[in-house]
Design goal:
Layout lengths: L19 E5 L5 E5 L39 E3 L7 E5 L3 E3 L2 E10 L4 E5 L3 E7 L2 E6 L7 E4 L3 E10 L13 E4 L5 E13 L2 E14 L15 E3 L2 E5 L8 E7 L8 E3 L1 H5 L22 E6 L12 E5 L2 E9 L7 H6 L11
Length: 345
């Protein structure tokens, strides 16, 4: 079967990728081939019968579904009988432990292609959709011929929120997922001859159970207090070289985005989301939190400097070379000289 060259692939955060293409064919088998660099010419004997893009789905603005980026031409709403559809094993899940599968089925006469990480989990809060995972799309590109399907398996485990989890392609375990309304989306390219259209597939999901609270991965005992500022360190055995600084912002500043708790539990890398080790240390008398880490790299999920909103409070995030916090004048005045029994001046 003649296929056009695929779009360039994107390597995901914390994952390695290559230019391989996975083909799920009519025998139900999976093949792997090198992504072609040139398109071979088609001979008369190789020409296929003319096929058309299936006339299914609705305009993206007509359905309650998260946004697709880049935009799609149509969103498939019929998830039971449409020739191209996205199925889910469970629409209602209960915490703290649960599991489900997501499956794309191609019963159209066209060829469908998508990335292994092209699915996206969203949460809807106060009429807004929030992107939870994954953080990018990646190789390998999967080509699904007619009469075939592809499946992803998911587990949610909130029994140990201290563990770091990140997306692992077709078998994903998440934690820090609270109750609420969710959706899973998948964007794919549908090819028929020289025609290509971008389709969006969507499935709804309701999760019930106990709410989650953002907790740090660092030991709270590592915090150092200096007046209204707190410094926490990720690894007390290593010398920190970078620091993130989070300050309460004025309410009149316009936030660049709003974050929710589920987003802070997803790391994307073996390193925790920096805000997870900062926000929990704020209190009524704390206006600034510094998070010191033993790496020069900036975490891929933050883009300082930035202003964001979390639970109605606005914050300003920056990052710079770590400098050991200095003792404040107020603290120095209240320290007692053990030898003399008098207060230091």
């Amino acid at each position: 079967m003649h296929r056009r060259a695929l779009l360039a692939s994107i390597v995901p955060v914390g994952l390695s990728g290559c230019g391989d293409v996975r083909i799920i064919n009519n025998t139900g088998q999976t093949e792997t081939e090198e992504e072609p660099t040139t398109e071979p010419e088609e001979t008369p004997d190789e020409q296929e019968d003319e096929v058309e893009i299936p006339d299914i789905g609705v305009d993206p603005g007509e359905i309650r579904c998260p946004p697709f980026e880049p935009p799609v031409d149509t969103v498939v709403a019929d998830t039971t009988t449409a020739p191209l559809r996205l199925g889910i094993s469970e629409h209602e899940l209960t915490l703290p432990e649960t599991a489900f599968t997501l499956e794309i089925t191609n019963e159209s006469e066209t060829t469908v292609s998508f990335g292994a990480y092209s699915w996206t989990l969203w949460k809807r809060v106060e009429a807004e959709w929030y992107h939870i995972v994954p953080f990018t799309q990646s190789t390998p590109e999967i080509i699904l011929s007619t009469g075939n399907e592809h499946e992803w398996k998911f587990e949610i485990d909130n029994t140990d929120l201290s563990r770091l989890r990140w997306t692992d392609g077709e078998n994903t375990t998440l934690n820090g997922i609270g109750p609420g309304e969710y959706a899973l989306t998948l964007a794919c390219n549908v090819e028929a001859g020289e025609q290509t259209e971008r389709f969006g597939l969507c499935q709804s999901l309701t999760i019930t159970g106990d709410s989650i609270e953002v907790t740090p991965t660092v030991d709270p005992e590592t915090q150092q207090r200096a007046g209204s500022a707190v410094t926490v360190q990720t690894d007390t055995q290593a010398e920190p070289v970078r620091a993130y600084e989070l300050v309460r912002a004025d309410s009149n500043e316009t936030p660049q985005r709003t974050l929710i708790a589920e987003q802070l539990f997803q790391s994307g890398t073996p390193q925790p989301h920096p805000l997870r080790n900062m926000i929990p240390f704020f209190a009524d008398d704390v206006t600034r939190v510094q998070y010191a880490i033993a790496t020069r790299q900036i975490h891929p999920l933050v883009d300082p400097p930035t202003v964001f909103e979390y639970e109605g409070q606005q914050y300003h995030l920056t990052t710079e070379e770590f400098i050991e916090p200095e003792e404040t004048e107020t603290e120095a005045e209240t320290e007692t000289d053990i030898e003399t029994g008098t207060e230091e001046e």
